[in-house]
Amino acid sequence: MRRGSYSSIGRRCGYPVHPWNYRRTRPPDMPCPNFVVVLRHERLGFYTPQVETLISKCKPTPDNYEVFKSGSVAARLFFAQWSCVLEAFVGLWESRFDGDHKFSPTLIPNVIVPSDVDELNDRLKTLFIDRIRGFIDGELVKRWEKKLENVSNEIAGISASLGKPNRIVYAEKLNEKKNGLKRESDLIEKRLREYRSALNCILDHLGEKHLNDSGDGVQVFRLKYEFNWSRIYHLIMRECRRLDDGLPIYAYRQEILCQIMTQQVMVLIGETGSGKSTQLVQFLADSGVIVNGSIVCTQPRKIAALSLADRVREESSGCYGWNLIGCHPSYSSAQKFDGKVIYMTDHCLLQNCMNNRSLSGISCVIVDEAHERSLNTDLLLALLKHLLCRRLDMRLIIMSATADADQLSEVLLQLWNL
Ligand SMILES: Nc1ncnc2c1ncn2[C@@H]1O[C@H](COP(=O)(O)OP(=O)(O)OP(=O)(O)O)[C@@H](O)[C@H]1O
Fold this sequence. Notes:
Layout: H1 6-12, E1 35-41, H2 48-57, E2 64-67, E3 73-79, H3 82-97, E4 103-109, H4 114-136, H5 139-163, H6 168-205, H7 229-245, H8 253-262, E5 265-269, H9 276-287, E6 294-299, H10 302-315, E7 325-328, E8 341-345, H11 346-355, E9 362-367, H12 375-390, E10 395-400, H13 405-417
Parallel strand pairs: 5-10, 6-8, 6-9, 7-8, 9-10
Antiparallel strand pairs: 1-3, 1-4, 2-3
The protein binds adenosine-5'-triphosphate (ATP).
The site of adenosine-5'-triphosphate has 14 residues, from helix 9 and helix 10.
């Protein structure tokens, strides 16, 4: 036996002990475990049958466990042996990737040995790298490549038709269709490139070499040195969902990030539903382009601010800490900018701006639906103009679905020259 219970061998060997004292929370008849695997669920709810099934399939079986009927922790599995917890923990992540359950396992050791942490990280690195490689050449990518092939065949067919004598009206129609298909094919290629560069960025973090370059030189994820397996898992899955959804803005992620890195003000125009309001904040928060301070996205209406915050929280579940996506639908003097992304009404930001002229705590302001040109938006933009001169670290992004970018820039210049 490599190690006994925490109270005997763990202490005798002088291993450091995890600050969380399990003796306080474990059931009275349960011996103090050396290792605890916590199974968390992103959504609060009741999942006793699912978690019981998962535990029954866990190999090796835990020495003991607790199942919770509600809350974010679904269960805690207790192990005495390192070899057992290691196999069980890696197995739980494997089955998570296989889609057998939706619980994120976290290991809390009561007895910490650095070589154990290294062993666990090595095993998980191998598993994650293997799965990422699978995703890079997976079914989803093949489906998009097939679509790309079909579009290319269609373009070739139209080019062949255009080579024959045609009536002018018909030739114009064919040309229009060909241009549309070319745009679609470009978009698919760019989306695939974004997807690969995001997964390669995670491979980099895991210390794995890869052949493809990471696009425009912008890191789409800013990952800390230590491995947060749950976060990495959710980032991978969100990339797969993004490719699957095929929102137009995804194809331009690195281009947009490059612009924001180098320019203080940017005007972003995209058709309705292209993903501006929900995706851009996440791109910024992931990439670390906006390092300190919050990213504030203003909306003309409260309902839009609340619904977007909910949507982004749902989409990015597991990718950031708990309260990092917030919403301030109305102004309060006690408001703090402690979230990474905050949706608010333009009226609320204007009030904040009047009371805190330097907008300390905010590093990026996104003014959405700028074409609506409300009085609040215009006043806000006027105040932001002065602020941008003082705060060179600050970024302003003006977004609209319907406006012409040049026309909007012109209006802004006029407004700022007043
Ligand atoms: N609260 C929500 N619930 C469900 N789906 C949503 C929600 N908000 C956005 N979506 C979906 O997410 C996608 C991107 O929406 P998003 O609002 O980011 O686009 P947009 O370019 O900002 O559009 P608009 O210019 O109309 O604001 C759309 O397909 C939309 O249907």
